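Private note to self, pasted from the team thread so I don't lose it. Backbone tokens:
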């Protein structure tokens, strides 16, 4: 009956679906053991955790008679249990009510697991059927707005007031892959071969570059890449664009609507345990199963044994890890919460900071799902949601290659970075290019599994603060953008 309602083909006549609804919130203390037993009993079972914004639950007719404080406490506990179970079990899915009513857009991961593709119109018809409680008008209105937005790539629109222009020799954007990798570059010709190799090895097959006035062959090299769409932006507008943020907020929705976007720098490589096997599509699938729309991607500075100015010159195309193999242990990292935003400080730049000044912020959240009214970058570190995702995949930051000193001098001369390159002036004053960064307990890092301890510690910090489940979908309310500028 349900298969017919959804418009699913009867080609596989031996496939049967059964459903059992359980109000898990009443059995949280025994839930994981029960689900493990159920999974052994029914090897092909799909566990679906239906969740909803806590405010809406407390206001619903069913729960109005319950104490809101106790109900919220139970909902928070349930959110964390659901999320962590889905993270470690590929047959478990967190489905938010606000996403479910979008139809296929919200239920695609579940139907991919079931191995069927229902007729979208029939699916939407089923979802619109009223049951014992009527849908909230405001929720239906939101779903209508999101559903009417096209998932097709918007053709580039050249306007006089938008400074980024599509390269005349660049291929048009494909808009077909699961993820678009975006990067703002200037004079990165040496790093690009290994950067592209790394992300291609993760399964990324579409790249968007915004060149900011390169003179070292970067443009010519990118024009040769068949999977790259290239834009140009005036070099003198980097600071005015909030260091590329304005450009990405415009071009991301044009080319990645209803897809995932990974925003990187040319010296940042996304790495996590099992990334070599799971790939970027597996990481995204895990985020979607957990009911998440973004992944927390903090920076980890990776450094060499010798001072940067004693290193052999970096050779284009070689792994960055041939030059830099060490990171600070996680116990040296500092973190604090400020109005539900997580500020991270770690690595040699924190250890050698100037007296009376804050070190560079290592917070980043740059792998996210693009949709109308959704994620927006505020600057290099923070976004419109503010709260960190409980799913963590760090960027290994290879800032300390052999040309570090030269790049510091160049950034100071150009004056296009934060506060007229104040951070780079501090690097020069501290003579970072001639310092040894090694500690007695520096940690070797060369693969994703080396980050397991760091990710576990950071993930526990985020989850212990209640940053999972429904709260993860609440957007941040600004009281002035100056409040989240980097220190």
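Design output:
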């Amino acid at each position: 009956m349900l298969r017919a309602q959804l418009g699913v083909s009867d080609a596989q006549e031996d496939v049967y679906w059964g459903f059992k609804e359980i109000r898990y919130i009443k059995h949280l203390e025994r839930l994981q053991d029960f689900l493990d037993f159920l999974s052994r009993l029914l090897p092909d079972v799909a566990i679906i955790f239906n969740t909803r914004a806590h405010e809406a639950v407390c206001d619903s007719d069913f729960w109005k008679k319950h104490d809101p404080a106790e109900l919220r406490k139970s909902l928070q506990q349930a959110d964390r249990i659901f999320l962590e179970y889905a993270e470690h079990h590929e047959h478990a899915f967190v489905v938010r009510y606000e996403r479910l009513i979008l139809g296929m857009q919200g239920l695609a991961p579940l139907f991919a697991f079931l191995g069927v593709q229902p007729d979208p119109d029939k699916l939407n018809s089923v979802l619109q059927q009223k049951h014992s409680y009527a849908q909230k008008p405001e929720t239906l209105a939101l779903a209508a707005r999101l559903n009417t937005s096209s998932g097709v790539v918007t053709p580039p629109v050249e306007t006089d007031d938008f400074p980024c222009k599509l390269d005349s020799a660049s291929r048009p954007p494909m808009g077909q892959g699961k993820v678009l990798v975006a990067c703002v570059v200037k004079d990165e010709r040496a790093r690009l071969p290994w950067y592209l190799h790394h992300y291609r090895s993760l399964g990324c097959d579409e790249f968007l570059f915004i060149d900011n006035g390169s003179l070292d062959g970067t443009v010519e090299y990118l024009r040769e890449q068949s999977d790259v769409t290239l834009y140009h932006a005036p070099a003198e507008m980097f600071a005015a664009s909030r260091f590329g943020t304005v450009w990405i907020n415009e071009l991301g929705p044009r080319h990645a609507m209803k897809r995932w976007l990974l925003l990187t720098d040319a010296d940042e490589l996304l790495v996590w345990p099992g990334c070599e096997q799971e790939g970027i599509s597996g990481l995204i699938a895990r985020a979607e199963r957990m009911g998440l729309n973004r992944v927390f991607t903090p920076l980890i500075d990776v450094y060499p044994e010798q001072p940067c100015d004693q290193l052999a010159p970096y050779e284009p195309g070689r792994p960055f890890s041939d030059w830099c193999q060490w990171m600070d242990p996680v116990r040296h990292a500092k973190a604090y919460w400020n109005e539900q935003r997580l500020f991270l400080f770690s690595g040699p730049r924190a250890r050698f900071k100037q007296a009376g000044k804050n070190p560079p912020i290592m917070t980043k959240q740059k792998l996210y799902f693009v949709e109308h009214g959704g994620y927006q970058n505020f600057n290099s570190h923070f976004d419109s949601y503010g709260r960190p995702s409980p799913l963590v995949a760090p960027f290994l930051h290879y800032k300390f290659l052999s040309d570090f000193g030269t790049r510091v001098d160049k950034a100071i001369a150009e004056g296009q970075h934060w506060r007229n390159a104040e951070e780079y002036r501090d690097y020069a004053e501290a003579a970072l290019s001639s310092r040894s960064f090694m500690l007695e307990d520096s940690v070797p890092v060369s693969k994703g599994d080396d980050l397991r301890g760091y990710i576990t510690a950071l993930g526990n910090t985020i989850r212990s603060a209640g940053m999972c489940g429904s709260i993860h979908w609440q957007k941040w309310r600004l009281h002035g953008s100056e409040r989240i500028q980097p220190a």
